[in-house]
């Protein structure tokens, strides 16, 4: 199921200026290898949030080879940090290279291993937490990450409409069950103000009140 009418999606993509050269190279790699990156529409939304919140500390759960992190780093003020988490060594090595080429290497800290474990160990509060891990892990990721978000901060979560499977899949498989549970949980948090943006594959924005 398309979340956005393909004609509207095409219109949005056509309106969007060409990405930064490093991001463009990463987009080409993703297209060639079928790697799931957030892409320019969601990437620019993250950039807007970094600018609006004046984020200095960002934690990313599930970084791949760094497309979303580098998107944010490109607009983040000097002195800010983005902590990336990834299980795959090759993705980390590729991400480090791209970050150097984009001249944002100093802003990015890589944690190799499980994102939820790294989040659990993290000290202090974050301005933005971006969640893009395995979809079965979304409910646990939320339970671990939410206390680490500062008041006024924002948790952003990708793929929350999961190509429409959240409404269409019968019987739902584990990933869909995880996303549905996550969506119910985050809307039920008493200190969260949530909107689910039907952008690309569905983007959850949850501001901590
Ligand atoms: C959808 S991709 C991330 C894409 C990235 N956020 C972007 O848009 O550029 C998900 C990545 O998270 C990693 N991943 C999934 N679950 C993870 C976990 N629990 N801990 C660390 N990495 C994880 C996968 O190896 C994969 O590279």
Summarize this entry quickly:
The protein has helices at residues 6-15, 21-33, 39-53, 67-73, 89-101, 115-121, 138-145, 165-168, 174-188; strands at 57-61, 81-86, 108-112, 126-131, 149-158, 192-197, 203-208. The chain has 209 residues and is of the alpha/beta class.
Notes on the protein architecture:
The protein is of the alpha/beta class and 209 residues long. The protein has a single domain, classed as Vaccinia Virus protein VP39 (Rossmann fold). It is built from 9 helices and 7 strands. The chain has a 7-stranded mixed sheet, sandwiched between helices. Helix 4 links the parallel strand 1 and strand 2. Helix 3 packs parallel to helix 4, helix 6 packs parallel to helix 7 and helix 7 packs parallel to helix 9. The chain is globular, with a radius of gyration of 16 Å. The site of S-adenosylmethionine has 20 residues, from helix 4, strand 2 and helix 6.
């Amino acid at each position: 199921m398309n979340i956005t009418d393909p004609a509207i999606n095409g219109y949005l993509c056509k309106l969007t200026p060409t990405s930064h050269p490093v991001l463009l190279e990463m987009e080409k790699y993703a297209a060639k290898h079928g790697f799931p990156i957030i892409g320019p529409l969601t990437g620019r939304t993250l950039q807007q949030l970094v600018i609006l919140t004046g984020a200095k500390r960002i934690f990313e759960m599930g970084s791949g080879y760094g497309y979303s992190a580098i998107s944010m780093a490109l607009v983040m003020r000097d002195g800010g940090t983005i902590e990336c988490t990834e299980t795959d060594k090759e993705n980390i090595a590729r991400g480090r290279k791209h970050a150097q080429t984009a001249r944002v290497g100093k802003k990015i800290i890589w944690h190799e291993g499980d994102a939820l474990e790294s989040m659990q160990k993290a000290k202090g509060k974050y301005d933005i937490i971006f969640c893009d891990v395995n979809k079965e892990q979304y409910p646990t990721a939320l339970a671990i990450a939410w206390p680490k978000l500062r008041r006024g901060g924002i948790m952003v979560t990708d793929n929350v409409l999961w190509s429409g499977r959240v409404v269409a899949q019968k019987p739902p498989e584990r990933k869909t069950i995880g996303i549905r549970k996550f969506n119910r949980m985050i809307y039920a948090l008493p200190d969260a103000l949530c909107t689910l943006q039907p952008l690309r594959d569905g983007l959850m924005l949850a501001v901590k009140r």
